[in-house]
Automatic annotation (TrEMBL):
Residues 25-107 form the Core-binding (CB) domain. One of its GO terms (molecular function) is DNA binding. Keywords: DNA recombination, DNA-binding. It comes from marine sediment metagenome. Signal peptide: none annotated. Gene3D superfamilies: Intergrase catalytic core (1.10.443.10). One of its GO terms (biological process) is DNA integration. Residues 136-286 form the Tyr recombinase domain. This is Tyr recombinase domain-containing protein. The keyword Nucleus does not apply. Pfam families: Phage_integrase.
């Protein structure tokens, strides 16, 4: 399947990035070995993919072979993850799952009977607690005035448009990043976008973000005349028009937050929750 859902292509890219990275070769081999193990257990490519980048990042934070890590090393990494304001509660939980599952495999992979596998001492302290959206407090939610503030500090139309579209649509980040120009139809009322998500295709009406989206596509998009081009694409030299990925957008958010001095959480899950809360408030007032 094309775009963000072409997970096999995404996996190839992730593994190529892993091979080209500067982490220890032994760590690369163990990450690939873990992926092969997951594949042998029938884990989908989509789930396998979600382990590659986090493990590569963890290897960089660790600064040594996975097999030489101490409990103190893992505690330090977990502490840094949990104290990072750029990570949502779900992202933090995902990292804990990745670390614990990976080390369970790493320390037991030579034992054929998985029933005999044990959890290594260095990761036994990790508790996996599913986040509760109810814990989000209103003061941390994003509001229209917050989006305006962020948009005013954006340096490119692309960033302004994606912020506004994400907030107004409440769509998942994968739905927005996989959207092509042909999926956007402008009319007298704004525009309609076709997004493809977990429940299939659906139409979403945009009003407030429509002018900025139109300006981005028609003024600065490197492939504006190509209906098959991704709406939110890369624009740097050598990558013009290629699909923007999660990590690129995450970095944009990080730099925007630092540059603007914005003091609220700014991550994908929080963005979606804020959009849903904003919509619910309007429906209640109506």
């Amino acid at each position: 399947m094309k775009g963000i859902y072409n997970i096999n292509k995404k996996m190839e890219t992730a593994l190529r990035s892993l091979n080209n990275s500067d982490i220890p070769k032994k760590n690369k081999d163990n990450i690939k070995g873990f992926v092969n193990f997951l594949s042998s257990k029938g884990v989908t490519v989509g789930r396998q993919y979600k382990y590659v980048y986090p493990l590569k990042r963890i290897s960089k934070w660790l600064g040594k072979d996975f097999t030489k890590a101490t409990k103190q090393d893992i505690q330090r990494i977990c502490s840094n993850i949990n104290s990072n304001p750029e990570y949502s509660a779900w992202t933090k939980m995902d990292y804990m799952v990745v670390i614990k599952k990976f080390y369970r495999w790493l320390y037991n992979k030579d034992i054929e009977d998985e029933d005999e596998w044990t959890i290594p001492v260095l990761v036994k302290f990790i508790k996996i607690n599913k986040p509760k959206d109810a814990k989000k407090i209103p003061s941390d939610l994003l509001y229209a005035k917050d989006i305006k503030f962020l948009v005013d500090h954006c340096q490119r139309l692309r960033e302004k448009a994606i912020l506004m579209v994400l907030f107004e649509s409440g769509a998942r980040i994968g739905e927005i990043l996989s959207m092509c120009i042909k999926d956007v139809t402008f009319d007298d009322y704004g525009c309609q976008i076709n997004v493809n998500g977990k429940t299939g295709y659906r139409k979403v009406r945009l009003v407030g973000s429509s002018p900025m989206l139109s300006q981005w596509i028609n003024s600065e998009h490197p492939r504006k005349d190509d209906k098959e081009a991704f709406v939110f694409c890369n624009i740097q030299n050598g990558k013009e028009g290629t699909q923007m990925d999660y990590n690129t957008l995450r970095k944009i958010f990080v730099h925007l937050k630092k540059r603007s001095g914005f003091n609220k959480p700014l991550n994908f899950h929080h963005f979606r929750h804020s959009a849903a809360t904003h919509l619910a408030a309007h429906l209640t007032d109506a």
